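Curious: why this fold?
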Amino acid sequence: MRWLIFLILAALAFFYFLPEREPVPVEETFIGDEIRAVQKAEAFEQEYLDAVRERQEKMEAELDEAGGG
């Protein structure tokens, strides 16, 4: 019975002092390609929204100059 308690305590001590592994970055996992594609799409979306906002502001400025608003 004592050997079982010693074995359990030794196993607990082993796992307690075992160094914890660093998590692997998502880009290095099996879904890394998909993550890069999503990041690329997000960048494209932001560029597109900026261009639309700029075009809308330009159109509003032209309307104000023409006296339409």
Remarks:
- The helical segments are 2-17, 32-66.
- The CA atoms of residues 2 and 8 lie 10 Å apart.
- Residues 26-69 form one domain.
- The chain has two helices and no strands.
